[in-house]
Amino acid sequence: MTELRQIPNVGTQTEQDLIAMGYTTIASLRGKRAEELYAEECRLRGCLIDRCQLYLYRAVEYFVNAENPDPDKCKWWLWKDEFVEPSPCGAVCTECGNFPTACSGCQKIRGKVFWLRYTDHDVCPIYQCCREKRKKNCGGCPELPCHRFMKDPTLTDEENNAHLNRMLERLQEAAKK
Q: How do residues 92-113 score in pLDDT, each as one tens digit?
């Protein structure tokens, strides 16, 4: 057994696969992207493997690259596409400090986000709009950003602007796909 087994979710088989791909230490994994590891393992095995292994590698990527990884975020199932891809507003669940403890992600909680207590809404207006238009997110919407985007009252204007810019970039990227 190597130090790779100290990484949450890494069992005997994943440890062996990582070693076969040339990763023998936690340090050797730093900077590697989950998608690269998944593609390498698919090549190693000679076939497309279950997508859950990609989710596991996303959790591994988080664990080995985070300065102080949150144990609550190390579970592989929290790195499924729905938590890694942009939510309706362009936020990414896994990057949020409230995920997964205070918030389980927009899709799972159906837009009933934690910050609604600061508003007069029952459901996030962006989430609701996307559902009504049968859209995954606001990417490609000609009104972007619209009045449904609200400032987080717990953040400064500078922080809110930075968050909005990141969300808009993600939504513009999502529209290209």
A: 999 988 889 888 888 889 999 8
131-160 pLDDT tens trace: 999 999 999 899 899 999 988 877 899 999
CA 17 to chain centre: 24
Distance CA 99, CA 1 (A): 32
Whole-number CA gyration radius for the chain: 18
DSSP codes of every residue in the chain: --GGGGSTT--HHHHHHHHHTT--SHHHHTT--HHHHHHHHHHHHTSPPPTHHHHHHHHHHHHHH-SS--GGG--GGGGSHHHHS--TTS--GGG-TTTTTT---HHHHTT--GGGGGSS-SS-HHHHHHHHTT-SSSTT-TT-S-TT----TTS-HHHHHHHHHHHHHHHHHHHH-
Q: pTM for the full model?
A: 0.84
What pLDDT sits at residue 174? 87
How far apart CA 108 and CA 104 sit, in angstroms, is 6
| Measured distance CA(91)–CA(127) in Å, rounded | 11
Q: Measuring CA to CA, which residue among 130, 175, 166 is closest to residue 148?
A: 130
